[in-house]
Amino acid sequence: MITVDRVSENNPLGDYLRARREQVRPGEVGLPGGSTRRVPGLRREEVALLAGISSDYYLRLEQGRDRNPSTQVLEAIGRVLLLDATAVDHLLSLGTPRPARRRARRETVPIGTRQLIDVLALPAFVEGRYFDVLAANRLAGAVSPSLVEGRNRLRALFLDPAEQDLYPEWELATENLVAGFRTSVGTEIDDPSVVRLVGELSLGSDRFRALWARHDVRALAGGTLRLTHPEVGELTLRREKLAIGGTAGQMLVIYHAEPGSPSAEKLAILASLASMPGGPEPVGAPEPAGGPEHAGGQATDERGEPAEVEAGDPFA
Question: For a tag on the chain, would you pick the N or C end, based on fewer CB atoms within 10 A?
Fold first, then answer.
C-alpha cells in the first residue's frame, strides 16, 4: 500500500529536525554505534546532549510544543546535525514565526526578461518558485522537451520517461532537484499548489517520495549538467541560475558549454536545428501542477476566487 508523506502544516520544524536527525550516523559526531541501536541516525537525547540543551526541551521542539526557539539553540542543533549554511538558514526560517500567507499571485515574467531570452544564442528559460517553466527560448526546448513554457520540471523529471532518458545520472539529478525545490519553497510547504504537486509526485514516484522524506535543502546555484541527447549524443553543459529582480523568486537559467569543446559544437548543431522550420516551439505544453496562478493564468485566492493583482506589486 502506497502512503504519501504528507506535508505537516502544524509542525514543519519538528518534521525537519526528525528527518535530519535520522540522517546522521553516530560515528560522524563522535558517538559509538553498534548493532543494538534501534533507531536510524541519532537519538533525541544524543542530539540534546551534543547541543547543550535538555532532552525534554529538544523533545518539545520535535513535537511542536515549543515554537519559539532561540537562534543560538537552533544553530547549536544545526552543528550537531552537520547542516551546511543553506540548511542552517532553512532551519532558522522554520523556527521563525510566519506571517499570514498572502493570497495567490500570478507569476508574471518581466517583459525585458522575455525579450532577453528570445535573443540569447544559448538555451535559456525562466523558472518560477515551484519549478514551473514560465518562459523559454527555442534552443531550451531543443535541449529538453520539458523546457517549454507551462511545464513543471519536477513532474517531467519524475514522471516522464523521455525526460528521464536524458539524464545518465538521473538519481543525482533527482536528488539535487528535490533539495533545490525544498529551498525554493522554504516555509511555504502548506501552499495549496505545493501540496497538490507533492501529493501527485508522491503517488506517482517512489523515488520522489523517498527524497521528499529526507528534507534535504540545497543552494539554488549553478552547476554542471550531463545529458544524453537523442540527436547529438553526450552533452556536458554549465548551468547558471540568476535571480530576476522585482519578482518573487523567479530565476533566469542559462545553459552553456565550454568554448571549443565537443559539447559546444553539439549545442551549435541544436541551435541550427531549432532555427529551422518545424523546430521545437514552446507552445502547447500542459499546465503546471501549480495551476494558472503560477504560470501566467488568472490568479486565484485560497477559495478559488479571482485575486486582485495590484499594479507594481513585486509578487504579481
Answer: N
Taking the C-alpha atoms of residue 72 and residue 285, their distance in angstroms, rounded to an integer, is 47
Q: The whole model's pTM is what? A: 0.76
User: 111-120, 241-250, 271-280: which has the minimum mean pLDDT?
Assistant: 271-280
Q: How far apart are CA 184 and CA 232, in angstroms?
A: 32
Amino acid at 235: L
pLDDT tens across 26-60, in order?
A: 888 888 876 667 777 899 999 999 999 999 999 99
CATH number for the domain running over 111-294? 3.30.450.180
CA 167 to the chain's CA centroid = 17
Pairwise CA distance, residues 47 & 83, whole Å: 13
**What secondary structure does DSSP assign to 250-277, as a single string?**
-EEEEEE--TTSHHHHHHHHHHHHHHST
What is the homologous superfamily of the domain 12-94 according to CATH?
lambda repressor-like DNA-binding domains (1.10.260.40)
The Cα 102–Cα 304 span in angstroms is 14
